[in-house]
Design goal:
The chain is α/β, with parallel strands linked by helices. Helices cover 25% and strands 32% of the residues. The chain has helices at residues 27-46, 86-94, 126-136, 141-155, 170-183, 200-215, 227-231, 251-266, and strands at 4-17, 58-71, 75-79, 101-106, 110-113, 188-191, 219-223, 236-241, 244-250, 276-277, 284-290, 300-301, 306-312, 320-326, 332-337, 354-359, 367-377, 380-394, 396-398, 401-403. Strand 19 (396-398) and strand 20 form a beta hairpin. Mean pLDDT is 82; it is low at 51-56.
Length: 423
């Protein structure tokens, strides 16, 4: 067991949704609840808060029957769709929340970065928070002082070190939080997908640091939706699906299993999909990718026109559609934002509740692609669905030049060459 950093067995965590969970300490309270429950149900029906006689209160298992072991020095990527239980699992491992069943044994000191500002006191300065976090990890003042300059240099917040962190931007929060978590010598480093807040250069910097931590024989557990980042780990992956372990193998195996479930989800009616997040005032109920010539849903051609249609069920102030295209291994390729206006954009009353985005030339190499869609409105995310649509691109031409797959690159741009004198 000396080589094991984390041992998880039969782990389960449930949450009560629909109303506040009740804790009964006296028999009269339990009896009173039995008699009042029918009236609460009737009230919800009258207010339109229930679709049937059953009360909306229910228990969901965020994590169910999860078991695995992680050895010292392993770098493990955890992936899964929205609501798969990734963040709940990390909160249990870090001791923030307790499981309802099973156990998670941790052998070593944990440094965790689960969300922006976790473990920071807003009124304290960056310097004071470094000492506070070090003390929480059980480090002595001399140890923290030995690492202080390195932490500050990595976080790149030198001028703001003695400023209260409540004045930090989200990027500064993440830089300092990651630097503290990685440099104060934890045996186990837990990182949730907060790195998405940082810029690309900082993400690479963090990945390099996590690699250094692993080489020193310490354990790294990393949660992310970014398949590209996960695949740079080049080690083990755990794919969670509906709160349970679906695949535990190499990163490539876990990513492949994840992408296959996205493909299956795409075949479902969008209005019935539950793997979404957002406020829900506006929902995506239809998505279609066609060529814009005759509306055919057959395979698109590289270099030919393409059209993306997104149907929503309502309109709120400032409603906008954003969509993102990914390749077969989950690498992000490009994004489109209806709020970022171009000179040819226009309103069309005949569109009703549909957003339409048209491309004159599709600059994608032949292959299979997925579309993730986000609907925003009232300055909030209203709906987000992964793999709302999947489409194929076949052989074609861009600028008169054949666009042919080479198994590595996904984008093909129109271009021209100037060649040396022909002999």
């Amino acid at each position: 067991m000396s080589n094991i950093s984390i041992e998880v067995a039969g782990l389960g965590k449930k949450y009560h949704i629909g109303s506040l969970q009740k804790s009964y300490y006296r028999l009269p309270d339990q009896v009173a609840d039995i008699f009042t429950a029918p009236f609460r149900r009737a009230g919800k029906l009258l207010r339109g808060q229930a679709s049937g006689a059953a009360e909306l209160d229910e228990t969901i298992w965020a994590v169910k029957d999860v078991s695995f072991q992680i050895k010292s020095g392993e770098v493990v990527g955890i992936l899964g769709r929205n609501g798969a239980g990734k963040s709940t699992l990390l909160k249990i491992l870090s001791g923030i929340t307790d499981p309802n069943e099973g156990y998670a044994d941790i052998y070593g000191r944990i440094g965790s970065l689960l969300e922006v500002g976790t473990g920071f006191h807003a009124e304290l300065t960056g310097r004071e928070n470094i000492y506070l976090n070090g003390a929480i990890l059980g480090m002595k003042k001399a140890e923290i002082e030995r690492k202080l300059d390195e932490i500050v240099a990595f976080a790149d917040i030198g001028n703001f070190l003695d400023t209260p962190v409540k004045h930090y931007s989200s990027g500064m929060h993440v830089r300092l939080a990651f630097s503290v978590a990685a440099h104060l010598e934890p045996e186990i480093l837990l990182v949730d997908e907060v790195l998405a807040v940082g810029d690309l250069a900082f993400q690479r910097k963090c990945l390099g640091k996590m690699d250094d931590v692993a080489r020193e024989g310490r354990t790294v557990v990393f949660v992310s939706h970014n398949m590209g980042l996960l695949q740079t780990l080049r080690e083990r992956g755990i794919f969670l699906h509906q709160g349970s372990v679906h695949t535990d193998g190499t990163i490539a195996e876990a990513v492949d299993a994840y992408l296959q479930t996205l493909e299956k989800a795409q075949s479902l009616d969008l209005s019935k999909r539950t793997d979404r997040k957002g406020q829900g005032k506006v929902k995506l109920v239809g998505a279609e990718v066609t060529n814009s010539i005759n509306g055919s849903a057959s395979v698109l051609k590289a270099g030919h026109p393409a059209r993306f249609d997104f149907l929503v069920d309502a309109i709120v102030p400032g409603v906008a559609c954003n969509f993102f295209i990914y390749d077969t291994i989950g690498q992000p390729l490009t994004s489109f934002y209806s709020r970022v206006r171009g000179p040819e954009d226009a309103y069309d009353p005949k569109n009703g509740l549909k957003f339409v985005c048209e491309l004159d030339e599709l600059l994608l190499m032949p292959g299979r692609y997925r579309v993730d869609v986000a609907i925003v409105g009232d300055n909030l995310l209203q709906d987000f669905i992964e793999a709302a649509a999947v489409f194929e691109v076949g052989d074609g031409q861009v600028g008169g030049r054949p666009a042919q797959p080479d198994g590595k690159f996904s984008i093909f741009m129109e271009h021209r060459w100037t060649l040396p004198t022909k002999i």
